[in-house]
Design goal:
single chain; about 375 residues; alpha/beta; Aminopeptidase; 2 domains; five-stranded antiparallel sheet; about 45% helix; about 20% strand; binds zinc ion
Length: about 375
């Protein structure tokens, strides 16, 4: 008994260690959210991921395959975004009926530095009475049903070549493997949840779908992406009425337009929040910049009370390049300090204007750019 438990334990531990190494690699390359140059963060690239494809049909309805339904909805969604938002770049993980590995899908999103990853799926159950739409974010399942959905969607990797080594021994059929999702950090959880709830709102309001809510479960494809990401289950092909809706042009239009509206709401709210944070930060840094006139530098320290500084106010010492530097006067307005520097040069002919933020001398050009 003990031996079996022990072996079982090592079995899990080995898997988890492998997955942790993989997680580590993924998190090292996390792009910071606020990294866009010279301006507030904007949602610029969205990756749309139609589930399954090619030799993997996904869930099977009586008359339909998941892979066809989700491709049609994905292409409509991408078209809406492209037609209505000039500033957003749409990338698909597939735009036709081909098989794409799960890690490849995540890689496409990561390499393109996507701001949002939207994976679109449809559900299937043996119980044909179940219907409705739900949106998942990465996390640990809170009930068995959510675990089952994640296991079913993850099982696609068994159709991939060499999946055991590609996913570090992760076994999609083993609930044990999901222990890893308990250990991971989800840096983008808040934003993923935000977008997920926008989607569910639009599904119930715009598309009048039965709202099954926002849920969490361990989907490999979400786990491997390094940006806010969701997996949408648009409905059940196993329910005859819902299957008819999912197969219809109108149903697909409504669902795609609901996801588009959710994306628009999400983008607007993220960007206005980021814009506010950016201008506050800018105002703060502007306030932090002051101008002074450097009068002398010395290898030896000079007392601020030294008679050479007499008659000047705001005498300050800075250090840099192994020297003690002394500056006088203080203005936040550049023109005023230039005027002041002329009078200083009567006593110190080599005096010049410097810019200081907090207690650090910064390049004058940088300060001028910020106080313009
Ligand atoms: Zn699926």
């Amino acid at each position: 008994m003990t031996r079996i438990n022990k072996r079982g334990f090592f079995h899990i531990k080995r898997k988890v260690t492998g997955l942790l190494v993989l997680t580590g690699l993924i998190f090292v390359f996390l792009p910071p959210l606020h990294a866009q140059e010279n301006g507030p963060y904007r949602v610029r690239t969205v990756v749309i991921d139609p589930g399954h494809g090619g030799r993997d049909p996904g869930a099977l309805g009586k008359r339909s395959k998941e892979k066809d339904i989700v491709l049609a909805i994905s292409l409509k969604l991408g078209k809406y975004i492209e037609q209505n938002m000039d500033d957003v770049n749409v990338i698909y993980t597939r735009d036709r009926d081909v098989f794409v590995e799960l890690d490849k899908r995540a890689e496409i999103a990561n390499e393109n530095k996507a701001d949002l990853f939207i994976s679109i799926h449809a559900n299937g159950l043996s119980n044909s009475r179940v219907y409705g739409a739900e949106t998942f974010v990465m996390g640990l399942h809170t009930n068995e049903r959510n675990l089952e959905i994640a296991m079913k969607e993850n099982a696609v990797i068994t159709l991939e070549e060499d999946y055991a080594s590609r996913y570090q021994g992760y076994d999609p059929h083993s609930a044990e493997s999901f222990i890893i999702f308990n250990l991971m950090q989800n840096k983008h959880l808040e934003q993923s949840l935000h977008f997920a709830s926008c989607v569910q709102n639009q599904f119930s309001e715009r598309a009048r779908r039965h709202d099954r809510g926002v849920k969490q479960a361990g989907f490999i494809v979400l786990w491997m992406t390094t940006m806010p990401s969701v997996l949408i289950e648009v409905g059940f092909v196993s329910n005859p009425q819902e299957e008819a809706y999912l197969m219809s042009e109108q149903g697909q239009d409504y669902l795609a337009s609901a996801i588009f509206r959710a994306f628009r709401d999400y983008k607007q709210s993220i960007e206005s929040r980021e814009e506010m944070a950016f201008s506050q930060a800018e105002a703060l840094s502007r306030r932090g910049v002051r101008y002074k006139v450097q009068v002398t530098a010395s290898g030896r320290r000079i007392s601020l009370d030294h008679e050479m500084f007499s008659g000047f106010s705001h005498v300050e010492e800075f250090t840099g390049n192994g020297l003690y530097k002394y500056a006088v006067g203080e203005e936040t307005d550049y023109q005023r300090i230039v005027k002041f520097s002329k009078s200083v040069r009567e006593r110190f002919p080599d005096a010049f204007v410097i810019a200081v933020r907090d207690t650090t001398v910064i390049p004058l050009s940088e300060a001028l750019r910020q106080t313009e």
